[in-house]
């Protein structure tokens, strides 16, 4: 397994190295680049002394984004499908919304656009509720920059504390019946600051949060319209480390629905 992992990383490094070289060459042409992506911004990024990132540093950043964005998003997709199958009414409501969106698409349009994504109001609540219930990023460390009062306790300036996101997301004061999967709880509800942090917050807010929600929503759009999940062990116990997941890794079949 280790040898295969090293080889896979080597192939990925080769791909990223070639992509960086391609971008660098395009930037040197008279036409330049008319539309910049994240890689272009990394190539342009420089510190106060004018130093730019070298190729190795850029590749490390890209690898971090690929790894960080893949596993967590995949876990939320898995849990969303589990919750949808376990709650038929939620599944039906979400599916009907996606069917309306498809019917309203212009004739000849192939695939979703941001316009359709912004119409997924109920599905957005399904995603937020999944993020709340599961809380994959379940804890982080913080240092108090000043004395802070929290639930009757004073945390002195300079103290380092462990913040449990799961305890915030499952606090009945913030979310009545917190263990219940209920997307409708988000109808007109704006969470208080610091009570909904699936992507952390402040200066440490995950830079890929909107991309992750977009990817999850597109996956669920197609899942709702065309597939269903048949689990082998629906009552399988849950494992909580390093991420919350069924112990059998959600063993089952994704079955295509014939409409």
TrEMBL record:
Q: Name one Pfam family in it.
A: p450
Name its co-factor(s).
Answer: heme
InterPro entries referenced in this protein's UniProt entry, alphabetically: Cyt_P450, Cyt_P450_CS, Cyt_P450_E_grp-I, Cyt_P450_sf
The residues listed in the UniProt record as binding heme, with positions renumbered to this chain, are 206
What is one GO biological process annotated to this record?
Answer: brassinosteroid homeostasis
Question: What is the topology of this protein in the membrane according to its UniProt annotation?
Answer: Single-pass membrane protein
A single Gene Ontology CC annotation of this entry is: endoplasmic reticulum
Q: Where is this chain primarily localised?
A: membrane
The record's Gene3D superfamilies line, in alphabetical order, gives: Cytochrome P450
Single GO MF descriptor: ent-kaurenoic acid monooxygenase activity
Cite the SUPFAM superfamilies for this sequence: Cytochrome P450
- Name its cellular compartments: Membrane
Coiled coil location: none
Alphabetized, the UniProt keywords read: Heme, Iron, Membrane, Metal-binding, Monooxygenase, Oxidoreductase, Transmembrane, Transmembrane helix
Protein family: Belongs to the cytochrome P450 family.
- Tell me what this protein is called: Ent-kaurenoic acid oxidase
| Provenance organism | Tagetes erecta (African marigold)
